[in-house]
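hey m, so remember when u said the tokens were messed up on ur end? i reran from scratch. heres the input so u can diff it against urs
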Amino acid sequence: MMLFRDPADVPHGFGPSVVAIGKFDGVHAGHRAVLERAQVDAATGGAKVVAVTFDRNPLSLLRPDLCPEDLIGVTQKVQLLAETGIDATLMLRFDQSLASLTPREFVERVLVDALGARTVLVGLDFRFGRGGAGNPDVLRELGEELGFRVDVIEDVRSLDSDRRVSSTWIRELLAAGDVEDAAKLLGRPHAVWGEVVHGAKRGRQLGYPTANLAPDLEGFVPADGVYAGWLVDEGFAGSEEPRRSTRYPAAISVGSNPTFDDVAARQVEAYVLDETDLDLYGRVVEVQFTARVRGMVAFEGVEALIAQMGDDVAEVRALLS
């Protein structure tokens, strides 16, 4: 997949293209429905499929008091969009300059001049342009004038609850520790991504050495507790070598270690099952959550904690087998 960071980066004559526009936070089932439709639309006309998205939630600039925490970071978003099989992503930097464009200026600069859009797909709640002045009807009017069609894609809804699949719903599930239902809406296990850093090495002292993720990790951290999941080693940070990944079963801890009460912030750490000499420091890993084992509690003494860790690892092993 080609990645562009600015309309000026798109090669001259790039189009025609079928463009899907959105925040794509989580690249969940609803987002993939839009991208799959775009791929169908492009199949018979030789057009490229392009996702136009942003490097941050626009609300972080426009209404920071209303801006929710992202489900995924930019690195994760690029990777997940690439996995859908689309041809390109235009990752726009959402700054004051972009926010100040009128709907017409946005359409002409991004969709027409840069991408040569033939069809543009958006959701029902799509808004764009200065002050949110643009909506699907405005986009249709501009499309009729400038030579592209607009398709508004209906929401994907849960059959059980008739609720719209959304990033908001997924955040609610993750905040409650329900990673299994979140995975159903995402179409994959929820994950966080970041570099492994040195910690207190307390896990090693207890017989369960863990890989601690840096505080600036990407991805929404679910509720405190112990989880079954997977650690995917993606190599050293900044390496230019071809990407290779190794996947390990893992018991994952999220929280501030209440037994010792000396960890200032929540942290994500993963114990790779049956691996005591694995050196992951400085490497970038993805930690995938598949099931919640229990909540986070404080134990009365180290022996009780070690006994519970043994039980946790046994349950994780059973869940992943």
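this time it looks ok to me. The radius of gyration is 22 Å. if urs says something different then somethings off w ur setup not the seq
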